[in-house]
Design a protein that fits this description.
With 322 residues, this protein is of the alpha+beta class. 36% of the residues lie in helices and 21% in strands. The mean pLDDT is 93.
Length: 322
């Protein structure tokens, strides 16, 4: 994904929306941003030049890294020590780390792969001149003319670089993979002042007052404010989220707690299960000739009375379930 094209398209969409609504930028009170999580980019702190294009959350180049690291002595010791500490303390933080695994969908292994395969990135990281950010971090940095390097806590919590129990970037994970923490953006509440756009971007400065990961924004938008409230989103993948209230959910089945949102003193956690292949499964079925267009799916479903106990689970990239 080309980062400059992405930025131009974002600005064009906002400008077109203002035009269609007969609204001037000077009349806009605030701007909020919600983006897909875990797609990231790194760029030079001094020049602003990216070291690579956006690395999407479905990028699989680090598959071998995940397999190797999940079997390595460091991660096995982390799990073993966490299991012991949980037995002694019953602290849910140790329960969560006792089943710690690297996955492609999260950031660490893809970031490490980039570090290992891009010499310039590796060299500049040693010099402390690398900035890391997810989609919204890059957008805010661009929109504010490079003044703000920030991310909201909901997006940060989905990267696996953030400790939702301690509510800060994880020194354990960063030390484990051997990357410096100075590349990471400042973490802020979901609602608050993230910066102000440069006047020339939209014709007048607009304050950026909210940021959230896509699934967390979906939970908030569906008014899933109560403990136990659930939402299911189906797109490229399927994501099921449950509101666990003010306590992070630790699971022996590998579900890692996410921050839903933090607004002043209100802190809400989620537990999330996911399958990476939903829309992609439909495209796959179409590619092998099961149907010519998606409109035909309903006719196929109703063409038989039942499936006779046969189920198809579209999880080509695995499941994260409990």
């Amino acid at each position: 994904m080309d980062e400059d094209l992405f930025y131009r398209q974002f600005v064009d969409v906002v400008c077109d929306s203002l035009k269609d609504a007969f609204v001037k930028a000077s009349q806009v009170t605030a701007l909020g941003i919600s983006m897909q999580r875990n797609t990231f980019i790194t760029w030079d702190r001094e020049t602003g030049k990216p070291f690579h294009h956006f690395i999407a959350w479905r990028d699989t180049r680090s598959d071998d890294y995940c397999s190797t690291w999940n079997k390595c002595i460091k991660v096995r010791l982390l799990r073993a020590m966490s299991t012991f500490l949980y037995t002694v303390t019953r602290n849910d933080r140790f329960l969560a780390s006792s089943v710690f695994y690297f996955k492609n969908q999260t950031v660490p292994m893809r970031l490490l792969w980039m570090h290992d395969h891009i010499p310039e990135l590796r060299a500049r990281m040693l010099q402390g001149q690398v900035m890391f950010g997810t989609l919204e971090t890059w957008l805010v940095w661009k929109l504010t003319g490079g003044e703000r390097h920030v991310v909201d806590v909901s997006s940060a919590s989905g990267t696996l670089l953030y400790d939702p129990f301690m509510m800060k970037w994880s020194t354990i994970v960063m030390s484990l993979i051997g990357l410096p923490s100075d590349i990471l953006p400042e973490v802020r509440d979901t609602a608050g002042h993230f910066g102000t756009t440069q006047p020339e971007v939209f014709g007048a400065p607009i304050r950026i007052m909210a940021m959230a990961g896509d699934q967390q924004a979906g939970m908030f938008g569906e008014c899933c404010f109560g403990v136990g409230d659930v939402k299911c989103t189906m797109g490229t993948g399927t994501f099921i989220d449950i509101n666990t209230g003010g306590k992070p959910h630790a699971s022996v089945a590998g579900l890692y707690p996410l921050v839903g949102w933090k607004i002043k003193d209100e802190l809400v956690y989620l537990a999330e299960g996911s399958s990476s292949d939903t829309g992609t499964a439909i495209s796959w079925a179409q590619s092998i000739g099961l149907f010519n267009s998606v409109e035909e799916i309903s006719k196929l479903i109703t063409s038989v009375e039942n499936t006779d106990g046969v189920f198809f689970v579209p999880s080509f990239s695995g499941l994260q379930v409990e």
